[in-house]
Structure formats: C-alpha cells, structure tokens
Known about the structure:
Radius of gyration: 33 Å
Largest sheet: 5 strands, parallel
Number of domains: 7
CATH topology of the largest domain: Arc Repressor Mutant, subunit A
Low-confidence stretches: 1-14, 259-273, 502-519, 563-570, 1003-1009
CATH class of the largest domain: Mainly Alpha
Strand order of the largest sheet: 9-10-11-8-12
Distance between the termini: 29 Å
Number of strands: 14
Helix content: 55-70%
Shape: globular
Structural class: mainly alpha
Mean pLDDT: 83
Strand content: 5-15%
CATH superfamily of the largest domain: Winged helix-like DNA-binding domain superfamily/Winged helix DNA-binding domain
Amino acid sequence: MTQTLVRTLRLTPAPQLTISLLGPVRIAYDRFSLTFAYDKVQALLVFLAVEADRTHRRTALADLLWPEQEEAAARHNLSQALFNLRRALGDDLGNVLLTTRDTVRLNPASAVWVDVLAFRSLVADAGGDIAQLEQASALYRSEFLEEFSISDSASFDEWLLLTREQLRRQACDLLRRLTERQIGVVDPSRACDYARRWVALDPLDEAAHRRLMRALAESGQRTAALMQFERCCRLLDDELGIAPEPATLALYEELKQHVAATPLAPAHRMHEPLSQPPTRLIGRERDLEALAAQLAAPACRLVTITGPGGVGKTCLALAAAAAGAAMFADGVCWVQLAPVRDPALALAALAQALDVPQNNARPLHELVRDALARRHLLLLLDNCEHLLPALANLVADLLAAAPRLTILATSRVALRISQERRYQLMPLGLPDEGQPPEAQFESPAVALFVERAQAVRPVAALDLTTIGAICRRLDGLPLAIELAATRTRLLSPHELLARLDQRLALLSGGPRDLPERHQALHATIDWSYQLLDPFQQALLRRLAVFADGWTAAAAEAVCADVTNTTPAAASVLDSLAALLDASLIGEAANSSGEPRCTMLETIREYAHLQLIAHGELARTQELHARYVATLADSAKGALTRAEGALWTARLEAEHGNLCVALRWAINCDDAESALRIGRGVWRFWWRGGYAREGLDWLTLALARERAVDAQIRAEALRAAGVLAWAIADYAQAHRWLAQGLELARPLPDRYPEATIYTMLGILARTEGEFTQAYAYFEASRAISATLDDPYAIRFAIMGLAEIETRLGQLDTAAERYTRCMALNSAAGDAEGIAAAKRRLADIYCRQRRNYTEAETLCAESMALCQAVGDRQGLSQTQLVLGNLAHDQRRDVQAIAHYQASLRLRKQLEQREDCAETMEALAVSLGRMGHAEKAVQLVSGARQLRGVIRAPLTAFEQDPLDAAVARWRAELGAAFDRLWGHGQTLTLEELTQLAFSTPSTPANTQAASE
C-alpha cells in the first residue's frame, strides 16, 4: 500500500464514507447507514475496500463473485453490481470508484476510511507503542465480516476465511503484546481485559489462558484464576482430547500455593520476565544509585561489577537491571554464565538466553551478532571470571557489532577491555565494637543476618551484639552471613560465634596465592562444610562434577560409594535434603518435570577443591561419565517410544552434563563411554538442532585408537553417518557408514549391519540413486529376516515403501506401510507407528481416495509425534495434511499446513525437506492466482536441491513441471525474470517469501484450474 493511500484511508480528518468490517458490517456515508440492493453489491464494495492498494481486472472480480457462470454473464452481473454500488454511494461523478472498460478500484484520493486498513497500519507501525496497540485493539470489534456471507461463491468465501484468519492472528498477537509485562500494559485489570479477549479469539492457545490466569492473580482474583485453569482443561479435553502443558500445570500449582506473581518492570529475558533478587536487598541503596547513573550515561557501553565471591554482585546487578530496564527499548537479557565451565561454550549460553536457535548452516557467532545488531538492549552477563580472557574478546566483538547494546557484567576480575567502566562492590557495612545493641542493628550486615535468621526461626529477640561480632568475623560478605543465619535453627548466636571463631582461626593462614577476599569466603563455606557429617561432606564434594545440576538418581549413581563405610543408597536422599536445608545446594527449574538440584558456583568451586584434596576427582569424574553413558543407553530406545517427549526434555536438561562427560571421556581416552553416549543420544541431537555439535563429539571419540567393543563402535559410526546426513555432508556420511558396515559384518548380532544398510538406503534415496537405495533396503530386509527380533524388519520395509512411493508404485507401498504399522505397534515403536500412518495417508492422497481415513491417520500421527517429541515427524505430517487439503481444493487450509511444516523444517535445518514443502506450497499459491510467488519458490527449491544433490523422481517432477508450464503461459515474459530471481534467494529469503502469503486469490481463473 502506498503512503498516499494510507494517509487517505486512515488519516482523513472527516471521511464521508466509513467502512467498518471488523465485526458486523457497518457502512455509512456522512454518518448515515447505507443499504444495498443485494448482498453481492455489498460484497463487491467490501472486497474493493480491503484490497484497496491495487487495481482489479473486471474478469477477476466477475470470477470472484460469480464463479459458476459463463464469462459473459458474470461480466454483465458485475456491471449491474457496479451500477447499484454507485447509486448506493451517490457516486455519479466517480469520486469513490475508478473504473475503466477492463478495471475497477477504490479511488485512493477519495474520503474513505476502512477499519481493516487502519488496523493493519496501526499494528505494522506500532512497535512498542502501547497507545497505538490499544488503538488497533479497539478497532478489532470482532471477527472480520462476522455473520456475513454470500451464496454460490466459493472463491469469495475462501478469500473471506483467509482474510479473517490473518486478521484474527494479528489481533491475537497484539493482544499478547498488550498483556506481556515487558512491553504491554501494567495495570492488571486492563491486562485481564486484553487476556480475556485473547482467549476468546484463540480458546485453544494455552499461552493465552496462562496470561489470563496470571493477570487475574495479579489483580487479586486468585479464585477466578484457578477457575480459568479449569475452563482451559475442559476446552483442551473437549476439543483436542489432550491434557494441559507442563507450564500451565506449573502455574496452576503456583497459584494454588498462594505464590502471587508480582508485576515486574519492563525488564525481561526476551521471552520470560527478568528474575528479581531472591531476597530483599539490604544496604545497597547507594550502590543502586551509582550504577543507575553509570548505565544512564550516553557514552556508557560496559559496566563491570567486581568484588569477591559472595559479596552480592548478582543480586545487585539484577536489581539495577530491573530498575534501569525502562531505558532500553528491547529490555534486559540475563545470561547466567556460572554453569558454563568451558570458555568455548559461553557463546552457546548467550545464544540460548537470546533465543537464537542452533543453525547448522551459519556460525553461531554470526547469528548472535545479527540478533544483537539492531537491538537497544541491556545484556546482563553474570559470573564472567572463569571464562576470561575468551569472554572479554567476545564482549568486545559484540559491542563493536551492536551500537545500541549496553552490557552489565559481574566478575571477580575485570574484563580489561577499552570501553569498560568498573564498579567495585564492597562488603556490607559493619557495626563498630562496643556500640549499643540499637546501633548494631543500624548496620546493613546485622540487619541482613537478623532478617534471614528470623525467616528460618522466628524469635522474640536476638543478641544483636553477638550478631555484630559474627558479621565482623565474616567480613560483611552477604553469602557468608546468610549461610551463618540458617544455622540459628540449631545453634544460638553465642554457639555460632564460638564455632566460627575456631574455624576462622584454622583458615586465617590459608594459601598466600589466594586473594584475601577468597580466604574469607573459603572460611565461611568451609565452616558450613565442617558442620556436615562425613557422608554429607563427601556427597557435597562429588556433586561438584555436575554441570547443569542433577537428579536424585544421578546423585545416587555418582555419590553412593563416597566413603568406605557408606550407608544405604537411600542416605543420599537424606543428605541431599540436608544440603538443601543448609543452603549449600538449591532446587533448579527445568522443563523435564523431574525434580533437579543445583549448586551455587562459589560453593561448587569450594567443593571441587575439596574433591581434589581428598584424591577423589578422577574416580568421581569416571563415575559421572559412566552414569551419563548409562543414561544415554536408556535414552537410545526410549526416544522412539511413547515417553520420548519426556526423554527429550530430560536430555535437554542434561545437555551440560553430556558435554562434560564427553569431554572427560575423550581427554582420558575412554572412547567406549564417549561412543556409548553418542550412539544413545544422536536422535536427541538430531531433533534438537544439535546435529553439528553431536557430530563433532562423535568425530573426536571415533578418532581414538583405543580398543572399543565392535558393536558399540559400529552403532556410533551409524549415528555419525545419520548426523552427517542431517547436515547434508553426504560424503562424510558415506565414509562413516562404510566404516560402520565393515565393522558390523563380522558381528554375531547382525542388527547393526541391518540398520547401517537402512541408513545407506536413506542416503542413496536422498541423492536420487533409487536403484542403489532399493538394493540397500533389500539387503537390510534380508538380514532382518534372520534376526531373533521379529520386528527388526520394519525399518527395511519402510525404506522400500518410501522408494516405491517416490517411483509411483503406490499400491505396493501402501501394503508395506500397512504391514509396518502392525510391526511398529507390536514393537512399541511410537515414532515408527506415526511414520507409517502419515505415509499411508500420503499414499491415499496421491491415489485421490480415502481422504477421511487419511486425515484420521494424520491426526493419530500428530498425537504420537507430540508424545515422543518428534518435530521432524510433525513437519512431515503437516506436509501430508497440506497435500490432503490441497487435493480437496481447500487451499487456505493447505497453505496453513505447509507453513507449519516449513517452520519446523527450517528450525531443524532439513534443507531437502524445506525444498519439498516449498514446492507443495507453490502449487497451492499458483492455483490461487499467485504465480509470481509460486515461480520464485519452485525456482529457489530447485536451486537448493541442486546444491544438496537431492533430485526429484520423474513421478514427482511431472506434476510440478505441468504447474510451471501453466505459470509460464500465464506470466509470459515476466516468467524468466522471476525464475532467475528465485535462483538467487537464500533459504532464509525463500522462507520469508513463503510466509508472506497473499490474502486473496489474485486471479480466480487460475484458481479454478
């Protein structure tokens, strides 16, 4: 739409013609409602108003409204409708409508206001402007053309439904933005109103229900929030037959326990609210003011809060970030670096916090720089010291690439780069000896101790003089004070002081090469450590080997043999509880649903030193690696079963531990443990976008010469081949699979050999070598028929069926898929059942029959893929659903399914699959009259197939060539230009083109083909 048209249709002070279509149709001229001779006259005006940015051919308008009539009759009816429309508008002079012999359009210079155009313009231009978003929300009274339809015009109905859905999605998105704390309204009651509207527009979106629940709770309507949860559950069960997501259940439990969600400042972690300090800051008012002044300075790019461990750098940084978030248009992103042990992984942690997905096609540092380049953001990097100097170089690079980026860092050591401003955080103020008790309490350190002590054991009065002495002995360090305060449950202040006095005397002459502040914190943690019994001490030491936290089962596996007089393994649970109570470990949130624990980094460092001092480091690392390998063995089969989604979430939570275990195993030449891990979790790496990372680990492990069980190595080689295929490195995939086949052939268990032949078949099929692929699948089938496992043959049968499908041998393929469903069901392979169901549905679609049964099969496949966390399978099922909708001429639905498929495939970087989806989408777009986009998508997909060597068969190519021929005839000379442009587009650009779906058939004659 041109700027002139926007000004005319949106900003005219007093328009004569007002067209309101968001809700029941209201059309008024000088405030008087207009009536029309019949519905198609009104429909004509509605279409011209919504599509006012272009000129329409009379032939296309006639086909839109009278598609069943001959061209001459339809053109006559259009002329009559235009005559009646002019009469209704009083437009004898052509002020509103511009018409020629062949074309019609709404006059851009006329005084016309259309609510749809105003709504779209406000949404597009709003950015973070709340007033503009609210104005757009007010325009969206209800669904587009509510209760309006015309008879005998499927083309108009299709345009209406597509436009209605697009506007509804825009409305849902702006309501989401209005209800989000970081950019939306702050008033909880207004947030409730917007969230209710969001739920009404999209009642199956759990995010909308969660936001309404939270808004109700924040406005004091906690019972209403719990009732909203019940309504959400009923809707999901009635409409979809599913249970709520874990996030919805977690919020419900939070609200039940009266843990009110506190409205936050606009600070956020891109997709989650910025966490507040876990307890009230005491004695840091001046520090907050000083930091606020530094962050507000125009020339400030980097502020580093330095100070000893345990002095409260993180809590102060969180408070300062929350207080200053309003200065940054894109809010705050908090990156917790404490769990990152390897400097090389700091970039990955930053990418995760910024929601930058793993991308196998481009280096991660480029993706992170691009994500930050245009943002006005405060980046909070927490606990940097152990990652220097590599992290300092990364920070300098980001500051150079992102001119509007400001970084607030916490570190025990300055980053030492040119733009850095250092803020030295000192311990809390201490009382002087000899001061009266009242004066002691005025000290921030004493006030902190009293508040924390009263929280664990409320008493009428505390000995403030003794508490002042404790705080002085602890050098005013907040972490040390808080750890000491927790012991008031068992010890009086006098007893605490006595024990602490002895402990400080013991450690006051610690290693001279440690800084003085580290000696003080070491003394505090050591004091807590000495209060533990021997088993608890050994447990704390060994827990230091975990990178991303641990479950109780993991702690038992790694720590159960901690002493020569180890009690029963159940004592690990008791000791974990004791460590939680002592604030030496904490509870960690995660998406797997399993309770997990974590450890503060300062305490972990202390425990790690103790582990070394007791000579237990090597043994504990070995146990940790073996535990992770055993976990991977369990995941190997579980990832394909019904519990696959839970295992995917569990492995995501264990990702850091996977890396630590792999690193140790490779460095210590324990190739077998490393290969067990790789062969067990390759499917998680593939599904989660970690294919390149997983292949790197396997490459390092496979390079070790140490003798390894041949079957483990063969299976690991197959895993490496799969991951190389996943990133389109077909040459490397062939090498790994060839090595694996050579190793697998002599094995007594021929199952690995059969699976390698299957993967070789997939690889050959991808490269268009169908004769060779068929031979590989036949070899796999022949071997599988000799195995004790009667279900192993299913993989070969599936591969053969896929070849037959692509060659057009549909009846034979259908028989094989039906057999695969039975075999997979008997084997409990949920992923395999889902694959067979969607592929059989695809056969039915290609045969143009059994559409109802095909859609049922797809629905069952979708449910199974969701259960096992198979995003690849979901993308394939969405493609089949799109094909089914397209084949039944439901192109609006088809496009929605194709876009859902493409979105998943783009995330997974499956380039052949992306090409397949874009080709299907192009055919639907072409039939809707959008040949320009269709040509570019097919051209780009063909270029992509050439790069990755993934050709189509003649059976697949022929219908696509027929569509291209139609578009060539329709577009004439423009075809070659569009085709050439499509060849230049990147995958990212092609994806953007695919998602910019037009709202209407541009050429209904083409749509009728």
